[in-house]
Design goal:
Blueprint lengths: L7 H22 L5 H26 L2 H25 L5 H7 L3 H13 L5 H20 L9 H24 L5 H11 L1 H9 L11 H31 L2 H5 L1 H15 L6 H17 L12
């Protein structure tokens, strides 16, 4: 098992299946809890699971490393954990999964703007294909409900931008920190602010012990332990073993999983799923990591 998790493709597929299922779990959790409760509970539970790995690592970190870990945790864990359930109060789980495909585009954009990384033309073309595939699915699929609003969809776009920036920080500022130490430290640092945020919600006062509440709580526990805590470690490991571009292609595979769960939950299937899916597969091929790594732009 440990040897398998050293393979970047095994990591990629594991993350795609897991994160493609996140959106339906959030949707089910929203039947009982509000978005702020979902985000805060996920971070708190994840922090509790990982704190024993984080504390020894945090004590050894330099101030500079600690700062970058906090920044990576904010953009890669804390902020998006609240943005997605906020968006899904008006955006379907399938659309949320599809819009998540924008992460590699932001990796390319921020890599050029902030890290001086020149991406190959073929990668840019691949990102465009991915965006077109996602846009086509959103426009033609009919997966959205009547309450879907443009501004709520933009919250997901903002979350994908956060993921892209975090991936670059992990690769180019924190590559020396082992993935378990990095992920556990990033989440643990934001566990306390999350708990404080939870105190300002109605989670403790309004908690009702009934089957619906405990079912939703079960979804939250799965989100926190598996998708946030464990897969957070695997994602950082994938970034460090491959590249931010390759790691971000997990968001090109996860929409298929999100759409599958949407269909199971009663959403309709159209031919545009196939057309958009083909474009996304083409984008994965074009944007994939090459033997030659992107070089920094000359000063």
């Amino acid at each position: 098992m440990e040897k398998a998790l050293q393979n970047k493709w095994v990591l990629l597929i594991t993350l795609a299946i897991t994160w493609g299922s996140v959106f339906i779990l959030i949707k089910k959790s929203l039947l009982v809890f509000d978005p702020y409760e979902i985000g805060a509970v996920r971070m708190v539970i994840s922090g509790i699971v990982l704190v024993k790995f984080a504390l020894p690592a945090l004590r050894k970190m330099s101030k500079s490393t600690l700062l970058w870990v906090a920044v990576a945790g904010f953009f890669g864990n804390f902020f998006p954990t609240f943005l997605f359930p906020m968006a899904q109060t008006h955006v379907s789980s399938a659309m949320a999964g599809i819009l998540n495909v924008l992460v590699p585009i932001f990796v390319l954009l921020f890599g050029f703007l902030f890290f001086g990384i020149k991406s190959r033309t073929i990668q840019v073309v691949g990102a465009v294909f991915g965006f077109l595939g996602a846009a086509m699915l959103v426009y033609f699929s009919g997966t959205t409900n009547e309450g879907t609003q443009f501004w709520y969809a933009l919250l997901i776009v903002l979350a994908t931008a956060c993921f892209g920036l975090s991936a670059l920080i992990v690769k180019y500022k924190l590559d020396h920190v082992p993935s378990l130490q990095l992920s556990s430290s990033a989440i643990t640092l934001w566990m306390v602010p999350s708990f404080i945020a939870l105190l300002f919600t109605n989670f403790f006062k309004g908690f009702e012990s009934n089957s619906e509440t405990w079912e939703a709580m079960g979804y939250l526990i799965i989100l926190a332990i598996w998708s946030t805590a464990i897969c957070g470690v695997l994602y950082y490991k994938l970034i460090q073993r491959a590249s931010p571009i390759f790691a971000s292609t997990v968001t090109y595979l996860s929409p298929a999983v999100a759409v599958f769960w949407g269909l199971v939950d009663g959403e309709k299937f159209t031919i545009w799923y196939l057309v958009g899916g083909v474009l996304i597969l083409i984008s994965i091929y074009l944007i994939r990591e090459q033997n030659k790594k992107p070089q920094p732009l000359p000063n």
